[in-house]
Amino acid sequence: MPELPEVESIKLTLAEKILGEKIVGIEIYWPPAAESALDGDFSELVVDSVIVDIGRRGKYLLIDLDKGLTMIIHFRMTGRLIYYSQKQPPDKHTHIVFYLENGEMHYSDIRKFGRVQLVPTKDIHKVASLSKLGPEPLDESFAFDKLGKQLSFKKKCIKASLLDQTVIAGLGNIYADEALFRAGILPERVTGSLKASEVILLYNSICEILNEGIEARGTSFRDYRDADGNKGSFQDRLMVYGRGGQECKICGQALERKKVAGRTTVFCTQCQK
Ligand SMILES: [Zn+2]
How far is the CA of 164 from the centre of ligand 1 (A)? Predict the structure, then answer.
């Protein structure tokens, strides 16, 4: 599932190509993928619009159109948005093709959980999935004390808190495990038991890991590709995620693999306390 660094990479690769482009046509191959909160047909509302901005909130990509509309892209498990400069035939997983003045943008999704949701830009904060999101970890306004405040009331374990999008937006299984390893904190620790020094370590680890993930253009295990169709490279730098049973790159001990907060979690009992 694309997490913050992957969606940010899609945003960055897409921005160079689609900003200022007019959507001159659209083909919807799987209608449930195109959701509209407005009266009127999705296609009719979108066609003839100019793409004026592209942003991100948590794991959601936001494409602003000049008619005061925004397309919110929910990638979920296997959603992809890829830009082609030349004509490209759709494959069997392509759900929507946006034809631009120059090139085309394909939304595809093998598992079909993802959505492209059309909403009025002014109402974006009211959309259920966005309205409950916690702070953006890479915003300048997000300091360690804010993270501490977000975590202090939580009685569940720290892994569950990091995955909770209302606590902090954008972290998923990969970057939560990596941040906890770097901070030296065991994933099953009760969130409220973290000392101030540990919250600072965790805050720094989250920011570093996310920035390194963006620099590497994301992590590609199975499905993720950026908007150019390229894989990211952060998978080569993972310390714990997906490495259960293998040697810890720091201490050499075998890494533990266990379900925590309903998700497969990998950690080192020697390096994490
Ligand atoms: Zn270790």
Answer: 26
Identify the CATH homologous superfamily for domain 4-131.
Answer: MutM-like, N-terminal (3.20.190.10)
How does residue 153 score in pLDDT terms, banded at 50, 70 and 90? confident
CA of 251 to the centre of ligand 1 (A): 4
CATH match of 144-267 with 3.40.50.970: no
Closest-CA residue to 50 (of 65, 32, 29): 65
Helix (H) / strand (E) element for 209: namely helix 196-215
Ligand 1 geometric centre to CA of 264 (Å): 18
In the structure encoding, which two tokens stand for residue 123, read together?
């109402």
By three-state DSSP, how is residue 27 classified? strand
Q: Which pTM was predicted?
A: 0.95
Q: Which two tokens stand for residue 30?
A: 């799987």
Q: How many CB atoms lie within 10 A of CB 248?
A: 21
Would you kindly state where each structural domain of the chain is located, as residue ranges?
Answer: 4-131, 144-267
Q: Is 22 exposed, middle or buried (0-12, 13-18, 19+ CB in 10 A)?
A: middle
What is the maximal distance between C-alpha atoms in the chain? 60
| Amino acid symbol at 94 | T
For the segment 66-104, what is each residue's pLDDT rounded down to a tens digit? 999 999 999 998 899 999 999 999 999 999 999 999 999
